Amino acid sequence: MCSTAYKKWLLSGAKKGNVVLLLLFLFFIVSCDYDDRATTTSSSDSTADANLQCSGDNPLATDVATNVFSMTQIDTNGLPTGYISSIAVHPSNPSIVLVSYSTFGVKHLWKSCDGGNAWQSLDGSGDTGIPDIPVHTIFINPLNTAHIYIGTDLGVLYSADGGQNWESINMNGMANVVVEKLAYQASTRSLFAFTHGRGVFRVTLP
């Protein structure tokens, strides 16, 4: 997908005012320069531990060191019943795993410090907690892992203290809209928020 010819074709269409090709071009640029250190279920943190992968509706730990897959379910010790929407692995410590839930009526963000043997909620409480809304995607800032970003049904929430307190960072035209994907571009320290029907937004991380 990341070919020069394909990039030129998308850019040519975007310059002519084709909105669809413009959005595809933006997604192409992000995808081809995507730092996958801390992201969701579709990927793993190869820089932290090439032998650890996380995937599935239920969290699964997979050892691929010998090309032999050995699946172990890791959501049986304290996690609620519901739809697990994403998984993020800590950029430098693969034993630390975060999972999110897009189910109403349960805690929506959970953390394990031992590879899934035990879990604790990071929802917080009150005005600085995560409200009872679906959480779709997680990003852990590799430059400061205490900084966590989540995409929710009400935009992007941010924690500066490892998940104890949360605040909305919707600004500059971004509404309280569903954010289904967060993607990080390491070269520019840019975090992209892909929304449901309201476009793509970018914030430069400190």
Task: Describe, in plain words, how this protein is organized in 3D.
- The protein is 13% helix and 31% strand.
- By secondary structure, the chain is of the alpha+beta class.
- It has a four-stranded antiparallel sheet, with no helix packed on it. Strands 8-9-10-11 form a four-stranded antiparallel sheet, with no helix packed on it. A three-stranded antiparallel sheet has the order 1-2-3, with no helix packed on it.
End-to-end CA span: 31 Å
Unreliable residue stretches: 33-57
Assign the structural class, choosing from mainly alpha, mainly beta, alpha/beta, alpha+beta, or little secondary structure: alpha+beta
Largest sheet: 4 strands, antiparallel
Count the E strands: 14
Q: Give me the CATH superfamily of the largest domain.
A: YVTN repeat-like/Quinoprotein amine dehydrogenase
Work out the radius of gyration.
17 Å
In the sheet with the most strands, the strands line up as 4-5-6-7
* Fraction of residues in helix: 10-25%
How many discrete domains?
2
Instruction: Please write the string of helix (H) and strand (E) elements.
Output: HHEEEEEEEEEEEEEE
Count every helix, treating DSSP H or I runs of 4 or more residues as helices.
2
Shape: globular
Indicate the CATH class of the largest domain.
Mainly Beta
CATH architecture verdict of the largest domain: 7 Propeller
CATH topology of the largest domain: Methylamine Dehydrogenase, Chain H
Q: What portion of residues belong to β-strands?
A: 25-35%
Mean pLDDT: 78
